[in-house]
Amino acid sequence: MSNTSVSSSAGIDRFFAGPGARADRWRDLVELAEAWSSDASKKGGFEAALAEMTATEEFHAYPGPQLLSALRDHAAKDATATAGLARRITRALLTRSYRQNPGDWDAQDDGEEVASTVVPPALGRTDAYRPYFEVLIVTGMPAARWPTIAAEWRRLRRPQDPFVYEPVLVGSFEDAFCATILNPDLAAVVIQEGFAFKSRHDAPILRSLLDTAERPAGAQASALKLAQILKRVRPELDLYLVSTGKVEETAGSAEANAVRRVFYAVEELLELHLAILEGVQDRQETPFFDNLKKYAQRPIGTFHALPIARGKSVFRSDWIRDMGEFYGPTLFLAESSATTGGLDSLLEPTGNIKRAQDKAARAFGADRAFFVTNGTSTSNKMAVQALVGPGDIVLVDRNCHKSHHYGMVLAGAQPLYVEAFPMTEYSMYGAVPLRTIKQALLSLKADGRLNRAKMLDLTNCTFDGHVYNTRRVMEECLAIKPDLIFLWDEAWFGFARFSPFLRPRTAMGAASDIEAWLQDPRSIEHYENQQAELGDNPSEETLLTTRLIPDPRKVKLRVYHTNSTHKSMSALRQGSILLVKDVEFHTVEAQFKEAVFTHASTSPNQQLIASLDVARRQMELEGYGLVHNAIEIALKIRQAVASHPLISKYFHVLGADKMVPAQYRQSGFTDYLDPSTNWATARLAMQVDEFCLDPTRMTLVCGTAGYDGTQFKGLLAQDYNIQINKTSRNSVLLQSNINNTRSDVAHLVRVLVEISREIDERLAKGGPNVRETFDARVKSLMTDVPDLPTFSHFHDAFRQDAGKRTNEGDIRSGFYAAYDESGCEYIRLTDAEIDRRLKDGPDLVSANFVIPYPPGFPIMVPGQVITQEAIDFMRKLDVKEIHGYEAAKGLKLVRAEALAQRTGVAPKRAA
Ligand SMILES: Cc1ncc(COP(=O)(O)O)c(C=O)c1O
After folding, report:
1. Which of 94, 147, 406, 627 is deepest in the core (most CB within 10 A)?
2. Does residue 403 line the site of ligand 1, with CB under 6 A?
């Protein structure tokens, strides 16, 4: 291998050229080889494709240098042999058989098991299946020595090793960076001091992702610097430094924090090998699940409640044995209500649940993690109850999940609703603009009530995929209120931790960036410079339009995150995690325990806890590749819908430009499908834009095909076995996750083609009437959309200690007003009385939450004054499921007399 620059490495720069794109390139290569075998003039096409792949293939262990060079040798003379080898490599890659089958590494293999291989036998020395990973070795050794170095690493393998790994060698800082991004199989990196900075490959865009500040001055690159950067890209990787210098100094430096261990160059390679295995073992260990497995195998007599434990009541029964057969005996052997015998208590964990939670905290970048077995609905209520109390003001997105609203009712806190930007066209909301949030804080300040504002509670990302600029939101809010608590509901976004692209936009990703900034001595200077510019008494408008910098000496960083691990990772339904990064946690720890005691079941499900433990293990070991794949699948779906001539006639997926208004896309980013999009433009958008779109959440507009969201959801489920859950008036939400494969994309595309064809034929054969009906239906779905109602205000009866400029209210009293039946009345939505009261009073005041599905946000909350807007919206809604509203009875309202009793003001009556 030469050290000269290899150009034209477009593959490296391609945006989200993940595992799927790599498989496609190999499939294309096979096709080109086959084309060349039947037509000699096509040799050039194959050669060019192989040359283009070389750069990226060097970052993977398989097929590796020997097989690639065999492929090139074949390509010099024999088209048929070339096609054969390309086919074998591709098959091994697609089936992942190379991880266990040594024959896949042999250029001579004819499909049979082979005894001797070109590459020393890498795998298969033990009968048992051993998980496989790859280790990146960054070295200054000349490339000609790499095969020998790789062979030395392989010789370290021992039959008793729990895992098997293959080394991947690179010779520069830039190549190490690219390999870390492009190779999802890496689990560890060994950095040997003394390597070059510049890559042999030409990847200007990926290179630009390395901030200028991170570039070393000379040609030699710093190993510690590289370690820091790689840790930022993939924090789950174990990094090892092999130093030839003063290891003691290196190991003691603050910069070495990113590194798991520092070795002295001349030390035994075996130690390094063992350290690598131990590091992976640490991530693989699932303290609770491992114990549960042991527990299930022990012959235990149970004298506690839970007859199904051990399964005897099930398997001995003539009547319910089918449940046992359906779930299998292990489920019952692993059931227990005990917290002893190797198990632990979820309510007061001190043993393996505690250790499992600590590992989850590490994996998600938090200080603490709490497992929750009743979904994020419960995590949210726990967080709200623990962090705020009666009279505290919480700035909260009115459009958030109902658990937050109910949390405020329980806590007695006063919600100050902040409005998300509306997307009326699609009957959905976006996210809350920062200006709105700052305005609310500044208004509270002007009213002298900022001290009562305890928390900002937002959903990130929203159901439809709007992602906040979490860092900016927190920094600017902290500039106004330095001890504000942040609760980020990341029910849908837990997976984002494992994508370097999305991580900075997560609560914990942003919190650790802010933490690093707070520790940087330059932060005080930044703050003071801005203060000098703002002067003594900046106007509210100036504060609203300036990107505010908080005072690092005053900031108390208090960040909470909840995620439905079951929604985006491999946890069983209801598995949820609450993460904490709060410098003041000691002040709320007791309250936190109370909240856990209030909400957690005293009989938590063991399987759920185990699945949270396992989900964490998976994400730490393969989350990076899985998330990459989920994003890639989403981009494939987006592409397929946009480019298919028939599908695109009736359907489209909303791009970032449609989901996020231009004023919130400061970088000018348009969409992931835009031809000008690459890693650099996407990253810039992630850094600067106020809102970004989570690419895995795809709003498919079906109104243009004549279907409303609910109808289309039903059609997909009944006729095509495709399940989705969220709909709007004219759209459905498709989501990709770590579970999806390219076959799922293929199925979806086929179904959309079939539905489009059916519409096409119906319109072609139906004549003008059918066409007219169709056009009218599309028009009604796409243009005749109801305005989205904003939150009006709480009635004065529930605002007795409220400020002048803000709309918070006592939702708890509003909620309990409904318990007094005699103080409530019902009026049907269609009743003219509603219109009369809207016009002449007295106010219509909701006695409960009214939440239509879709869209799933409360149109009314307890104590809210109902407006014409809300009534119009409800009257236009054509959904059947409205929580808190019974059509036969009507809207439940607090009677004017009951309100008057609270305010002491007689109700205004119609003349
Ligand atoms: C934003 C948000 N938060 C919380 C929840 C509740 O999560 P879980 O279903 O895990 O209880 C949901 C459910 O859809 C949600 O959309």
Report:
1. 627
2. yes
